Amino acid sequence: MTATAANPAQLYMANLAAGSQGMGKCLDIIAGILSDDHDAESFPWETVTYRESMKVRVALVERYKPSTVNKMLSALRGVLKQTWRLGLVDADHYRRAVDVPNLLGSNLLSGRALANNEIAKLFETCTADPSPKGARDAALFAVFYGCGLRRGELARLDLDDFDSDDCSILVQGKRRKQRTVYLSTQACQYVEVWLRHRGDEDGPMFCPVSQTGEVRLTRLRGESVAYILRRRQREAGTETFSPHDLRRSFVTALLDAGEDVFTVQKLAGHADATTTARYDRRGEGAKRRAVQALVIPGLA
Q: 88, 97, 141, 227 — which has fewest CB within 10 A?
């Protein structure tokens, strides 16, 4: 989608990361609530007032769970901000229109963290494959899980982003923000084995491998990464998981190891620690262990 100079929805979508393009569907739904004959791109967003925003909120609450409602309200606020930036509404109109509270709720968290034995099985499956695909997939898991990357971030990695001297990777994150993450010694070994198959020519870090073992120096797409994970999951016989579950597993494992949430936030590339906390899947066991650290005098 090419953003036109005066289209708030297109400008909003153009500023989102590739993995956030589902927000366009949210805007289509909102436009449908407010009009019978408009989608996100054709709807006159500058006409939305506080009254219309509340109408949207009420309609969404009737259809969706709280987390989805809040996601859609975030999309609404985002496109309304573009109407103000474009000068289509004044600041007072904008502030009133976006002054719609999120929905409070206590839904079960989505996704899961993989157990240690599942992680082990996935690596065993990859290392049992003597082909370049096995080496690539083991390295892919090592970076995906070992650095907590998003699927798009992993697909965008270039060879130059990896520094073998200190086992670091420069990641191009959301909104073009960069961060440096680090691999453990074991994870770095998996990457180095893959790079011996890949070679040192400039280009993407992870590449397709043909059935005959030929490495093709073209970039894996996010969908290809997801396919690789599904295939190895079936071979390993673990429960199903999404690419983002590896990211949840990364955050959960670090928090469970005692790392503070702010360090984990920086490694995960989250804008705030609240988001990082939502990735925590340690469950009740972590709370039980935590209270054992309290010093309470015993009975005489």
A: 227
